[in-house]
Specification:
By secondary structure, this protein is an all-alpha fold. The protein has helices spanning 16-24, 35-67, 71-82, 86-96, 116-143, 147-155, 160-190, 204-212, 221-249, 252-255, 257-269.
Length: 280
């Protein structure tokens, strides 16, 4: 039973108590349209987009950063991709691509039968959204590698591929992962547009339905706010996990942790003896 207050005009008061009641109602969590099912769909949309975008942008960024060719082109391309209106792009691709896809297979628990032609346009939009941050950070990280280090590796007999894998990537890794983190946050926030497309859901479904039934004490304002809170928590959790991954993958010497640890250990190990004044 919702604790929403019904006003004289029949509308529902925007009390946060209704949000708390919605969260505490188990019926809103379970089932095919429950919060957990929609959260799972949202995560799947995000993971697919970020993985594919990384597979495209990472090699391209490494190539551009290593060779120095195409930097101006990539700069203009990434700025243009960032300027694309997401919802308009979704509508365009759904109208253009979906009728050309005749696969009716379903993915149990994620994509209903007939939904695949609509998943592909959504994923294309999210991939296009994720590529600029990963691509820009990757080639910027490789370009920022000290030329002296690169020349030293070449002088040791390393091939171009070995220089990229063993020298440039480890040094550029903090920026690369930072780009992936930024792309992930953007995709999590934007994946809510999937609910505008037939057969698809995600947390955006609660937001859109809540906006359409705003005064409904069960499916209106409380559901919309709860979905927004869940999206924000999901974004923070994803960023935290990627930050932990960055700490594990990045060399302490590159991240600066080695230097800080050495200074701390030196401060503990070295004891400065007290100098006593001498007579005479």
């Amino acid at each position: 039973m919702s604790s929403a207050t019904i006003l004289a005009d029949g509308s529902t008061s925007l009390s946060f108590d209704t949000v708390r009641v919605w969260f505490n109602d188990p019926s809103n969590w379970w089932g095919p349209q429950g919060l957990l099912a929609l959260l799972r769909e949202h995560i799947v949309y995000t993971v697919i987009a970020v993985v594919v975008a990384t597979a495209i942008a990472l090699p391209l960024g490494l190539l551009i950063g290593h060779t120095g060719r195409g930097v101006a082109l990539v700069g203009g391309l990434t700025n243009g991709m960032r300027a694309i209106p997401t919802l308009g792009f979704v509508v365009l691709l759904v109208v253009w691509i979906s009728p050309q896809i005749h696969i009716k297979a379903a993915v149990p628990g994620l994509i209903p039968r007939g939904g695949l032609p609509f998943v592909i346009p959504i994923e294309i939009v999210l991939i296009v959204l994720a590529i600029p941050a990963i691509l820009t950070n990757t080639y910027a990280g490789v370009q920022n590698v000290d030329p002296v280090i690169r020349d030293a590796a070449t002088g040791m007999g390393m091939t171009g591929g070995q220089v990229v894998r063993q020298v440039e990537v480890p040094i550029a890794l903090p920026l690369i992962i930072s780009g992936i983190r930024s792309a992930t946050l953007q995709v999590i926030a934007t994946a809510t547009v999937a609910a505008y497309v037939p057969f698809l859901g995600g947390l955006g479904q609660l937001i859109i339905n809540g906006a359409q039934q705003f005064n409904d004490p069960q499916h209106g304002y409380p559901a919309m706010v709860c979905a927004g809170i869940t999206v924000a928590v999901l974004a923070m959790l994803a960023d935290f996990l990627l930050a932990l991954l960055q700490r594990v993958l990045v060399s302490p010497g590159v991240s600066g942790r080695f230097g800080r640890a050495s200074r701390r250990s030196d401060g503990i190990a070295i004891q400065i003896p007290e100098v006593l004044p001498t007579n005479g």
